[in-house]
UniProtKB/TrEMBL annotation:
Coiled-coil positions: 146-180
UniProt-recorded name of the protein: RING-type domain-containing protein
SMART domains per record: BBOX, RING
Keywords, sorted A to Z: Coiled coil, Metal-binding, Zinc, Zinc-finger
PANTHER family: B-BOX DOMAIN CONTAINING, E3 UBIQUITIN-PROTEIN LIGASE TRIM65
């Protein structure tokens, strides 16, 4: 490729796929440039694969993944640079049409450049065809166009570097956001795990306490039950003795002598046991409500006559209410 540009500049303007000057240059998100047709063919081949339809395609230069069905946009700045390159190349080629740099029309040396027609001309062309056109020396036009082209390439390179830096910053910001989110997630999981552990420990303590209270309450109930059973046996013996005395003894002296031995109830002095659902119990003669909220009721024993022979009313022992039910 005979271009009047530096090799470094030429290298920057060549597509890495077709190895020619860019035709409709396209810039990928990674910053690399390709011909639109070349990168479209590359994109189509990779997306036709089974996994490519979802994963997209990769850049031929850096292998960075691109989104599937990515819209390929034209690089306007690079396109303008290529137009200047092609214009400069066309002018140089016109000057080199004939051997020795002679004008193909007049056979004279090509010494000037017509900026209106963008071609190299000889002195005869200057007088005849290009008399009213803008003209300049070949060296001056070449230097000016080369400087302009190099400036455009430099600007395009700077713009590409800015875009690459912006993309790098976005990637770093994305990673920072992910790291922060992961750290917050770890803290939340740790806090809730600690809270769950504390709740489980508290649950075990409460259940153990309830079990302990239950065991203590059942133990007291069993003790009271055994005590009541003992008193019940004593009362039954007392009843049998009293009934035998009442039935079998008719003589006054014998009755009084035997009655002195059984006249006192064995359980006298024991406070009455509370009723079901009545903590502490109610003393004899106290006013009590009916189950369904009826008229006040009094202990019927209060209105009964005193037992004959000095017998006292017997009251069962008081059953303490379990602590867990207080």
């Amino acid at each position: 490729m005979a271009l009047s540009i530096s090799p470094k500049l030429e290298e920057k303007l060549v597509c890495s796929i077709c190895l020619e000057l860019f035709k409709v240059p396209i810039t990928l998100p990674c910053g690399h440039n390709f011909c639109k047709r070349c990168i479209s063919d590359h994109q189509g081949k990779q997306e036709q694969a089974a996994a490519g339809a979802k994963q997209g395609f990769s850049c031929p230069e850096c292998r960075q993944s691109c989104a599937p069905q990515l819209e390929l946009k034209k690089n306007v700045t690079l396109s303008k640079v290529l137009e200047l390159v092609r214009a400069s190349t066309t002018g140089v080629k016109q000057c080199e049409v004939t051997p020795g740099g002679l004008c193909p029309r007049h056979g004279r040396p090509l010494e000037l450049y017509c900026e209106d027609e963008q071609r190299c001309i000889c002195c005869v062309c200057t007088v005849q065809q290009c008399q009213r056109h803008r003209r300049a020396l070949l060296e001056d036009v070449h230097s000016r166009k080369q400087a302009l082209l190099e400036k455009s390439v430099k600007e395009a390179q700077e713009e590409s570097e800015k875009i690459e830096r912006a993309l790098q910053e976005l990637e770093e910001r994305t990673q920072s956001i992910k790291d922060s989110s992961e750290g917050l997630r770890s803290v939340i999981l740790s806090k809730f795990a600690h809270l769950e552990k504390s709740l489980q420990a508290f649950q075990c303590q409460m259940v153990a306490k309830v079990e302990q209270e239950l065991s203590a309450a059942l133990r007291r109930v069993e003790e009271n039950s055994n005590t009541l059973k003992g008193h019940l046996d004593t009362l039954r013996q007392h009843q049998e003795q009293a009934r035998d005395l009442l039935v079998s003894t008719t003589d006054h002296r014998t009755f009084l002598e035997a009655g002195a031995r059984v006249s006192v109830c064995p359980s006298a002095g024991i406070p009455p046991a509370p009723g079901l659902g009545e903590p502490g119990g109610a003393p004899p003669g106290a006013v009590r409500r009916g189950r369904r909220g009826g008229a006040p009721q009094r202990d019927p024993r209060r209105h009964l006559p005193a037992p004959a022979g000095g017998f006292a009313w017997c009251h069962g022992p008081q059953i303490p209410r379990p602590r867990c039910l207080r």
